[in-house]
Amino acid sequence: MNTQPAAPAAAVTRIASRRARAGQEAAYEALVREMFEQMRQTPGFRHGQLVPPEQAGGLYHVISQFDSEAALQAWNASPKRADIHARMRAVAEDEPEYRVLTGLEAWFAPAVVPATMHPPRSRMAFVTWLGIFPTAAFFLWFVAPLVAHWPFLLRTALITGLIVATMTWLVAPRLTRWMRGFLNPKR
Question: Do the bridges between strand 12-18 and strand 45-51 make them parallel or antiparallel, or are there none, so unpaired?
C-alpha cells in the first residue's frame, strides 16, 4: 500500500497563436479580454496575457495558465469557451494554433516570448559563458582556498551555489541587457 501523498498536479501553460482579420484587431483584442474575464471565474485559472504582434498583420499570442491539466480541460469543455470562440471566428483568421507547456517546461518557459523572438542558441551559449567564466574564476580564486579543508561535496555545493546566485541576481540580468543587440540581431 502506498502511503505517500499524491504529488500536486503540475501547472499548465497554453499559448494560442492566431491572426486577427485586417481591420478587426480592436474587436479581437476586446474578445480576448472578455475571455480572460470569463476564465477568471473558472476554478484553477491562474492568469492570462495577450501579446500583440510585433508588426501589423502578425500573430497574436494568448497565454493562459491553469493549476492543472484538469482545470484547463474544464475550461475547454465549458459553454462559455465555446461561445467566445464562436464569436472570435468572426474577427480572427483560421483556428488558433496551440502549444501546451507542463511541468518544468512551463515553469522555466518565458511568459510572453514568441518562438520567433528567441535568440540563437549559439549566441545564448556564448553570453552564458561570458558570465560564468569570470564568475567561476572569481570564486575559485578567492573562495576555494578558504574552504580547501572542507569535504569535496560541501566545497562544491558552496562554490556552485555562490556562482548560481551571482549569475541569477547580478551578472545575467546586466549581461543580457548589455548584450541585447548581439542576442537579438535585427531581422
Answer: unpaired
DSSP 8-state secondary structure symbol assigned to residue 11 = P
3-state helix, strand, coil in the chain (%, to 5): 55, 15, 30
Residues of 48-83 as b/e, b for ≥16 C-beta within 10 angstroms?
bebbeeeeeeebbbbbbbbbeeebbebbeeeeebee
What's the pLDDT at 110? 52
Q: Which residues on adjacent β-strands are paired with residue 92?
A: 20
Average pLDDT for residues 160-169, to the nearest whole number? Answer: 91
Sign of torsion over alpha carbons 97, 103, 106, 109 = negative
How large a percentage of the chain has pLDDT more than 70? Answer: 83
pLDDT at 45 over 90: yes
Query: What's the sign of the alpha-carbon dihedral 23, 26, 30, 33?
Result: positive
- Cell digits of residue 121: 542558441
Question: pLDDT tens digit string along 78-137?
Answer: 999 999 999 999 999 988 988 887 754 544 555 445 555 567 788 888 999 999 999 999
**Residues in the chain, how many?**
187
Give dist(CA 111, CA 9) in Å, integer: 20
Single out the residue of 100, 92, 119, 106 nearest to residue 21, CA to CA: 92
**What does the alpha-carbon distance between residue 2 and residue 118 come to, in Å, rounded to a whole number?**
43
